[in-house]
């Protein structure tokens, strides 16, 4: 009964299961533990065991998942454990005392009855309004149970306070917001050799194309504790978003917007060299969740992303801004532990889980102390527009309601600022002279490429057309989507097949069927050889920019070795390829320009601003249309935030009912100073007060009546509980009349009250 499996079931039983999962009553086993505790085997103060939550958070976010690690310091060990999460102040005597949900990581491994020095579980925090929670662990060693009420085997966490405009922590059963909202997602990669130096892959580091969607609660792209779909696997292992986009588009009305950004090679560059990738998407009452993922490469199957982030607030509004740090997670499809581990498929497939600093000593994120992983990226989601009637319970502080949010599928001009083009030529004649569909084309010339590391695409543009007298908008025409990118090749070496798809966006109005193809296939070659001496390589990366800005030059592209030859020989497959490239014709009379000046200082002293640089024209202005000034964004350290306090309250009553006393007023700290901002001013003030009436009435009445007519009072009561836990509150105590006498003095014989300030420290 003391085996590892039995203890695992006890953990499951502890969280609300009335019957032993083995089929019998749980009383015998639980009772054994309770009796062991009462018979003196319980030991406090032993610190060879500890309970840790990754990142050591000070508060929990409702609905979020955290990694909990139980550790034993050598030479100590344990053979079993129990883990419970109790609501604060509860004893665990009823099912309702427990909260949150636990999930074992590496569940198959827990069936092995051996000594342990570490075990990991995932804990999902309870919903909003639960309050503080206490996590407690028990350790089992040869029938001896160590249980610690406080100290190294106990963690106390309170609920993170909700801020107006923040997203709900877990998807609500139903969003109550009205209208639609449009957002801009910006991905800031922070995965660099400076921040994450261990084994950093210098040659081929990159972020894959980001893929995601705004969607309903009925669709889950990925989630912790779930299994990766084929689309998620291809993003995680190959960096290919094609299958993932296909899966998303097949969800139909469950999805409102497909979210996509381009891949980033290399993974990190300063903002003045490359803008952070961004994409826009919309949400509505039904499809108010946002999910995405992107692979950090090279890696076995590691990604970052968000799953089911709710942009609908509890106040029936739309989140104004979301900013979150991202740590990598494992898709559970490849067992590698380093960036460039050889392919090692995980069979059977494991569940998606966050990476941790205690996963494996060879991991680039390993930390023997179990500290939090430094984030590899940051995501910023900003609301840029709202449309339609809104129904916020609390008025929104941003006025961004527009008449029309616009079409999500509309192509935006993403031409890099470092590419200088001529104007577009007129459209060519249509390639079809009949009512069959054709194409027409226009072109533009690349005049200058100011940054050779940034490609300059889109020198040609195509548009569907028909012959003269035919309408491209006729009712019998199908409206088709663009082709989704080609799939990965069906083989890892030799000749295979690949395919691509498109879908019908709108069927003909006359009810006829679309005759256009929705799928295409073609042959592909990944590796020329298929033998024990051949190696498996990735698809080719994008071509580097041309080596010249005009005339004939060269360009290069690379691919990586994913698996070396089985026979141990050297990989003979080419991993680099070079070809000629033709840029616009070089002018015989060049445009003569001076070098660019240095960048000016940033236009602000903190936060975001702009900076400029200029160059001079040295030749005939008629021969030169190049720009003479450039502007780019610049980022300085964030601006200091001064302390913000509320208005003063009204002055309180005098704390004395007669004679000299004082009165106070208070104000609350609304925002603590940040980043060196101005400190908070005083939050409580007092001034003197003096009340004469009571004493004068007593004196005048005592002249005409015997002393026995004076008031008899009870002793002062104890001070009341402070009215506020922080920021300046008030306490009161009272003196009541013990016995009222008859006669004129009785009218002035009154109860008395005193007040004083309390808890004046800032919140």
UniProtKB/TrEMBL annotation:
Residues 15-171 form the Reelin domain. GO terms for biological process: cell adhesion. The keyword Acetylation does not apply. Keywords: Cell adhesion, Disulfide bond, Extracellular matrix, Glycoprotein, Metal-binding, Repeat, Secreted, Signal. It is found in: Secreted, Extracellular space, Extracellular matrix. Gene3D superfamilies: F-spondin domain (2.60.40.2130), Reeler domain (2.60.40.4060), Thrombospondin type-1 (TSP1) repeat (2.20.100.10). Residues 1-19 form the signal peptide. SMART domains: TSP1. CDD domains: Reeler (cd08544). Residues 171-364 form the Spondin domain. One of its GO terms (molecular function) is metal ion binding. GO terms for cellular component: extracellular matrix. This is Spondin-1. It comes from Scophthalmus maximus. The gene is LOC118315975.
